[in-house]
Every structure is written in structure tokens, then in C-alpha cells.
Specification:
Order of helices and strands: HEEE
Shape: elongated
Largest sheet: 3 strands, antiparallel
Number of helices: 1
Number of domains: 1
Strand order of the largest sheet: 1-2-3
Helix content: 10-25%
Radius of gyration: 11 Å
């Protein structure tokens, strides 16, 4: 699921925090780093607290 989400995004180099609503009870938070063409997932988990609307 996470790899499918990341494949659809055009991420620039650096650190990214992505919050996305999916078919689960809570939105999913994914933290990644991008170097060259390599995407490394630092962590991902359901975001159970309030959601900041300024984030995806």
C-alpha cells in the first residue's frame, strides 16, 4: 500500500511528511527521505490524533 502511494507522487530530494486519507479508520502518515532516485521510508503509521489540514 505505501509503495503504491509513493509511486504516484513526484517527490523532490529531501525529507517528506505525507498524511493521506485511505480506506482505514485513520489517515496514514508516511515519513520519507529522497536521495537521487532512492526513496527511503523512515516510518509509517495511522495518525490517530487530529489532522492538520495544511498537510496532504
Amino acid at each position: 500500500m505505501v509503495s503504491d502511494i509513493l509511486k504516484t507522487m513526484n517527490l523532490s530530494p529531501g525529507k517528506h511528511e505525507i498524511v493521506i486519507s485511505i480506506k482505514l479508520k485513520y489517515p496514514l502518515k508516511i515519513v520519507t527521505t529522497v536521495e537521487d532516485d532512492i526513496i527511503t521510508v523512515v516510518t509509517n503509521y495511522p495518525l490517530r490524533k487530529g489532522r492538520n489540514e495544511s498537510i496532504l
